[in-house]
C-alpha cells in the first residue's frame, strides 16, 4: 500500500543561517549578486539521510561592466567551494545558466522547481519559469535521466549487496522519464510526486516505502541486500528504454527573450 511521505524535512534554522552567510560571503568575495539559490540534492528530492550534504546551487550576476569586455568568453563563469560541514555550495554565472537553459539543461530546470529556496530576487526565477514551457525539451530530459539511471545501475546495483542510496539514484530518473513520456512537462523534483506514477504497483511501492524508511535513519554509505522487486522494475524499464529515439524536435526559445531576461538581471 502506498504511503504519503511527501513533506520534506525542513532545513534547520542554524543550517539555513550558515548557508545564507556563505552565499553573502561569496557575493562579497566575487563582486556578484546572487539572484536565486536553492537546495538541489536529496534533501530537495525527499530522501535525505541524516548525514546527507546540503547541495546548494545558485545563479549570480556580475555588474554590467564585467560583461562588456572582449575577453568575456574567457572569464570564469562558475563559483565553487569545497564541501565544509556537509554544505556543498556552487554557482553559475547568469549568462552561462541562460545559455544552458536554451538547450533545455535538465539540472537548471530542476533548480527552477526546487521546493527549498534560499534566495530569490523576485525577478530571475519568475521570468525563467515563464519561459520554461517553450524551452523545456522532453527529449533532452529523457536522455539525461536515462544516462543517469543506466550509469548508476551498471556501476552499483548489479551485486548481491548494494548502496542503499543508489536505488534512489536509479528510481528517481526512471520515474522522471515516465513523467516526461506521459505529460511532456518538466518532471517534478520531489520523489513522492513522481512515485504516484506507479501507485498501482503495490509490491513495488511497498518495497520503495521500506527503502525510504531505511534511508531516513541510515548513513550515506549504508549497504543492503538487493531488493528483487525493485531490481525487476529497474531492469524492465532500462530494457524498454534501451533503444529510445527522440520523437520531437529540440525546443528552444529565441535569443530575444533570453537576452531580455539577461539584461534585466544585470541592470538592477
UniProtKB/TrEMBL annotation:
Key word Lipid biosynthesis present: no
Keywords: Coiled coil
UniProt KW Hydrolase keyword: no
Pfam families registered for this protein in UniProt: RlaP
Organism annotation: Pseudoalteromonas maricaloris
Coiled coil (UniProt feature): 194-261
PANTHER family: NUCLEOTIDYLTRANSFERASE
Protein name: Nucleotidyltransferase domain-containing protein
Amino acid at each position: 500500500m502506498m504511503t504519503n511521505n511527501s513533506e520534506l524535512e525542513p532545513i534547520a534554522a542554524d543550517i539555513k543561517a550558515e548557508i545564507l552567510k556563505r552565499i553573502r560571503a561569496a557575493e562579497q568575495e566575487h563582486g556578484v549578486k546572487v539572484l536565486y539559490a536553492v537546495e538541489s540534492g536529496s534533501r530537495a528530492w525527499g530522501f535525505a539521510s541524516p548525514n546527507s550534504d546540503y547541495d546548494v546551487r545558485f545563479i549570480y550576476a556580475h555588474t554590467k561592466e564585467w560583461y562588456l569586455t572582449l575577453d568575456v568568453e574567457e572569464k570564469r563563469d562558475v563559483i565553487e567551494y569545497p564541501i565544509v560541514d556537509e554544505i556543498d555550495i556552487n554557482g553559475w554565472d547568469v549568462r552561462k545558466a541562460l545559455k544552458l537553459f536554451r538547450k533545455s539543461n535538465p539540472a537548471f530546470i530542476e533548480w527552477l522547481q526546487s521546493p527549498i529556496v534560499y534566495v530569490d530576487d523576485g525577478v530571475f526565477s519568475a521570468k525563467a519559469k515563464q519561459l520554461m514551457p517553450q524551452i523545456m525539451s522532453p527529449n533532452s530530459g529523457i536522455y539525461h535521466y536515462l544516462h543517469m539511471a543506466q550509469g548508476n545501475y551498471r556501476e552499483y546495483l548489479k551485486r548481491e549487496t548494494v548502496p542503499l542510496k543508489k536505488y534512489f539514484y536509479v528510481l528517481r530518473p526512471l520515474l522522471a522519464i515516465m513523467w516526461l513520456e506521459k505529460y511532456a512537462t518538466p518532471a517534478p523534483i520531489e520523489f513522492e510526486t513522481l512515485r504516484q506514477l506507479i501507485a498501482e504497483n503495490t509490491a513495488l511501492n511497498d518495497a520503495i516505502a521500506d527503502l525510504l524508511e531505511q534511508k531516513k535513519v541510515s548513513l550515506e554509505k549504508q549497504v543492503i541486500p538487493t531488493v528483487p522487486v525493485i531490481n525487476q522494475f529497474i531492469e524492465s524499464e532500462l530494457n524498454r528504454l534501451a533503444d529510445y529515439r527522440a520523437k520531437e524536435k529540440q525546443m528552444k526559445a529565441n535569443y530575444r527573450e533570453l537576452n531580455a531576461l539577461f539584461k534585466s538581471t544585470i541592470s538592477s
